[in-house]
Amino acid sequence: MRKPMMAGNWKMNKTVPEALSLTRQIYELVGDCTGVEQVLCPPFVCLHAVKALTADMPFSLGAQNCHWQESGAYTGEISPTMLRGLSDYVLIGHSERRQYFGETDETVNKKMRAALAHELIPIVCVGESLEQNERGETRAVISEQVWAALDRLSAKQVQSLVIAYEPIWAIGTGRAATAEMAGEICGLVRAILREMHGDPVGDRIRILYGGSAKPSNIREIMGQPEIDGALIGGAAIVAGSYAEMVKITAEVYGV
Ligand code: 13P
User: Fold this and answer.
1) Three-state secondary structure call for residue 175
2) Domain assignment of residue 2, yes or no
3) 3 located within any domain
4) Stretch 126-153: mean pLDDT, rounded?
5) Residue 89: pLDDT over 90
6) From the CA of 28, how far away is ligand 1's center (Å)?
7) What pLDDT, on the 0 to 100 scale, is given for residue 1?
8) For a pocket test of ligand 1, which of 5, 6, 10, 11 has the largest count of ligand atoms closer than 8 A to its C-beta?
9) Structural domain contains residue 4
10) Helix, strand or coil, per DSSP, at residue 46
């Protein structure tokens, strides 16, 4: 069985003291829910402090982005070398990065390869826009993004990945995809992975849903056989909501 994952993308929220306080609250509420992998993705400046605080807590950490170069004249950027040992995971190709910071399928692929070379596990994000969805292009768009993101990766590299399906129109809007629809697209992603690298690889990879995931819809989302977890934005920076989602997931999985 794939271990369910609740990943909290804190986005550009929380100062260092606030991040520490949120982490402590989450620990108090669901520090014992070890059957669900809890991944906290605070802003870069909070990573070090959260890492120190969570040394004896059952949390994984994720960064929200990284550059593809190891070092150099890239003002304001953070390299995978800097994240090595500090973070377990790194979000790559989040739609906000694609939308506001010019990330393309090509740079996403470069970042994937750089992250893997530095022992960071990418959580690669894919998702269609509202227009694409309304034009019936969802499957084609997702397929193209997955193939491009995983281009030239070996089966060994691919089998460690996490993939998050986040329809752009569902992010921060309160309007989540229906569980069935999310499940169908996550199933498509898994079919692509199987086609790329065979069934054992496809069966092993965790696929998350993201986009207005919250306590009221997480049970239905996690009930979908192809969905292994959620990438949570707004509800992840409220300890009570995040904890509730972790507990519901533990219940659904019986862990
Ligand atoms: P919301 O949960 O706020 O819709 O954000 C989803 C997201 O973008 C997580 O990466």
Assistant:
1) coil
2) no
3) no
4) 98
5) yes
6) 23
7) 87
8) 11
9) no
10) helix
Q: Whose CA is nearest to atom 2 of ligand 1?
A: 233
Round to the nearest angstrom and report the end-to-end CA distance of the chain. 11
**In CATH, what number is assigned to the domain containing residue 136?**
3.20.20.70
Q: What is the mean pLDDT of the chain?
A: 98
Q: Are 209 and 230 in contact (CB under 8 A)?
A: yes
Domain of 102 in residue numbering reads as 11-253
Which stretches of 11-58 are assigned E, i.e. beta strand?
37-41
Q: How far apart are CA 255 and CA 252, in angstroms?
A: 8
Cβ-based burial of 60 (10 A; exposed 0-12, middle 13-18, buried ≥19): middle
Side-chain half-sphere of 230: how many Cα atoms within 13 Å? Answer: 35
What would the pLDDT profile of 105-123 be if each residue is shown by its tens digit?
999 999 999 999 999 999 9
- When divided into structural domains, the chain yields a total of 1
Q: Is residue 1 part of a domain?
A: no
Nearest ligand 1 atom to alpha carbon 95? 8
153 phi and psi angles, rounded to 5 deg = -90, 145
